[in-house]
Amino acid sequence: MPPDPTRTTRPASLEEDNRRLKRAVEELSILNDLARAIGASHDSEHITSTIVRRSLRAVRAEQGVITLVDRQASRDMKTLVRTMAGSHDRQAFHLEGSLLGWMQLNKRPLLMNDPESDVRFPGVRWDESIRSLLCVPLLVKSELTGVLAVYNKRGADGFTEEDQRLLSIVAAQSAQVVESARLYEEEQNLLHMREEVRLASEIQLKLLPKIPPRVPGYDIAGSSIPAEIVGGDYFDFIPVDENRLAVCLGDVSGKGLAAAVLMANLQATVRGQTLLRLPPAECVGHVNTLLSRSTDAHKFATFFYAILDSERHELSYCNAGHDPPLLAGRGRSPSLLETGGLVLGFLDPVSYEEEVIALDPGDLLVVYSDGITDATDDRDVPFGTERLSEALDRGRGETAAALIERIVSAVREHAGPQPQSDDMTLVVLKREET
């Protein structure tokens, strides 16, 4: 009696169905375990390492890597690489640049069981130990955020279509988790940076004089308003002896934290040199030397340094490339205090000059940073020294502190809706009327 063909095909078909069912159950178990392992974590290192380890076991590969695309890169595609070698005695593979380019362009799985002869990558020299390779994209809203790649199938000729399908599901399930973890870390880093900047701002404010000095016969005040949270301007009042007071104002190139650090360095240097009771030109010369040795040629500071002798009613000063302060008296036009030399930190050595001027009753000195005079309106017209002089004339009878408020208000009124683009710092010194 001839054999019944249905009796041979049914068991084979049933066996194949059982194999597929078993495979589906295994895949479902792998995906469920992976979801539990990474779902509650915000640690991108832990998440990517877990994904690679589970992927290696799932497709029986020797090594794996997740390459995260840095989408903030403005030119060439940069990557953040997290690797997991399946064996410690093997060299860890990283994703080849040509592969990254291919994945960026195609955004679909790539399976190669003979990389050397693959026509999609002509001219690419593969590592001799790479026998097979399977890459799948990590996509978030159709945008490539990373690539999951596994190398060298264990105990087989190469990766299969089933391996590709499973790894694609793993990538699809993991992409948003990886991206969320990375965004969480970026947010935490940003919060940490903001806290650091806030603390820097507090420290900087503490470095500035808290109260104006009390000098018989004089009214003195100062104020600094940074354009950012921290600034590169500063002013200071440093007692020299019972009759002399150093008054200074500096403007460091740049803005933000870098300028604030240089400003703190400048302030500490100036205070140290002032304690030596040197004449202004000599003091500024020493400050320039010390600053030049601690900064590069791209960093410099404009600086005005003066010593007020309240007994002699004299002001000796040195101007290191700073906007000339205005000295105004009753019945005469304001004069500019320009004597000095080059900005600080640019060259060393530099020879500085100083000048001594007499202060008559009612004389008014205003030292300012260029954030005052360079402030522009919506037509790009600067505030300028002429408007500053007009504000001085209108506020001549006011206290030094009130005059500072008047000048700042005038600058802001002139600028209108234009945002403050530079630090604004002022020092006002008035000899009282007798």
Would you write up a description of this structure?
Strand 7 (233-239) and strand 8 (244-252) form a beta hairpin. The chain has 2 domains: 14-187, 2-Layer Sandwich (Beta-Lactamase), CATH 3.30.450.40; 209-431, 4-Layer Sandwich (Phosphatase 2c, domain 1). The strands form 3 sheets. Strands 7, 8, 9, 10, 13 and 14 form a 6-stranded mixed sheet that branches. A 5-stranded antiparallel sheet has the order 2-1-5-4-3, with helices on both faces. It has 434 residues and is of the alpha+beta class. It has helices at residues 5-39, 44-59, 97-106, 161-207, 256-274, 280-294, 370-373, 384-394, 400-415; strands at 61-70, 78-85, 110-112, 133-140, 143-153, 218-225, 233-239, 244-252, 301-309, 314-320, 326-329, 332-336, 340-341, 355-358, 364-368, 424-431.
Topology:
Blueprint: H1 5-39, H2 44-59, E1 61-70, E2 78-85, H3 97-106, E3 110-112, E4 133-140, E5 143-153, H4 161-207, E6 218-225, E7 233-239, E8 244-252, H5 256-274, H6 280-294, E9 301-309, E10 314-320, E11 326-329, E12 332-336, E13 340-341, E14 355-358, E15 364-368, H7 370-373, H8 384-394, H9 400-415, E16 424-431
Parallel strand pairs: 10-13
Antiparallel strand pairs: 1-2, 1-5, 3-4, 4-5, 6-16, 7-8, 8-9, 9-10, 10-14, 11-12, 11-15, 15-16
Helix pairs in contact: 1-2, 1-4, 2-4, 4-5, 5-6, 8-9
